Amino acid sequence: MAQGTDDQARQLIQEDFPAYHPWVESLFTPEAATEKMLFLAQTLLGLCLFFYCMYRLGVGRRSPRL
Amino acid sequence: MHIMEGYLPLKHAAVWTIIAAVVTLSALKDVPMRIEVDRQTLLKLGAAVGFCFLLSSLKVPSITGSSSHPTGIGLGTLLLGPYIMPIVGVITLMFQAMLLAHGGLTTLGANTFSLAIFGPWCVYLLFFSMQRLNVPMSWRVFIASSVGSLAIYVFTAFQLALAFHDPSEGTGASWLRFILIFAPTQVPLSLAEGLLTVFCLKALGKSNLEFEHGPRN
Q1: Facing residue for A9 by CB, picked from B46, B102, B181
Q2: Residue B206: which of A2, A5, A65 has the nearest Cβ?
Q3: Can you tell me the distance from the alpha carbon of A39 to that of B67, in angstroms, rounded to the nearest whole number?
Q4: Closest Cβ–Cβ partner in A10, A30, A63 for B4
Q5: Sign (positive or negative) of CA dihedral B26, B29, B35, B37
Q6: What's the predicted TM-score (pTM) here?
């Protein structure tokens, strides 16, 4: 998997400012497999919420087009 | 665009948090009144949160070999206006900070400011500048959404540069280094996001646009 730009920015900070150390850590850092599942959950949650609201807002009904 | 947990010095994190909290609380106060005026506000808010959730969960490889994600902020801004968007941003960023260790609670303010305040206002201002120039609606939506999405990364680079710069080089040089990481990956993704926003708003129809009749007073 290609490296994320957020991680690249973090690397740049670590390289250019080695004296800086994060002063707080994440409360919960999921393992790789759990992280994938949680990202999937976010995608599904977003998908369901988005399509439900789009449907209720009247997608497909006759309305002036953009 | 997520600044990771602990990757902003305390003073910077505090300032961004205070600014973002003030704007978000004022947006929260505005919601009941907006619902009274437009009964569909909650549905639009749901669609905006859903779209933001969906797009920001997609880690997409770009042509540069690195990956990033679209922001999904353009659609919400055009449905609701920029005033309410901080709510959308906070919901999405909180979920990612608490469960995915993506972003963080100490950087929530900074991330909210770039994603849900600066980005939406860029979309809004661009959309109306182009309206004055009589740019066709679809082009307005496409350009405002694409540039707005990219602007979020431009601002994140600025936030990082403010916190991490060599005094002899200045903030500008540092900003350039950060933006050179974000921009090449983000440009194609922002263009794709612009197209998707046009498609979604076409499906919804013009009557759902917040700004169909011009800016809100």
Answers
A1: B181
A2: A65
A3: 15
A4: A10
A5: negative
A6: 0.91
Single-letter residue type at B177: R
Query: A5 to chain B nearest CA, in Å?
Result: 6
pLDDT digits (tens, 9 = 90+) for A14-53: 999 999 999 988 888 888 899 889 989 999 999 999 999 9
Q: Is the ipTM of this complex over 0.85?
A: yes
Decide: A22 and B12 in contact? Cβ < 8 Å: no
Interface A–B counts its CB contacts (< 8 A) at: 165
- What tokens were used for B32? 């009941």
Per CB-CB distance under 8 Å, the chain B contacts of A36 are none
Quick one: average pLDDT of B169-187? 92
Q: A22: distance to nearest CA of chain B, Å?
A: 4
The Cα–Cα gap between A59 and A56 comes to 7
3-class secondary structure, B68: strand
CA distance B105 to B201: 32
Look at A5 and B67 and tell me if their CB atoms are within 8 Å: yes
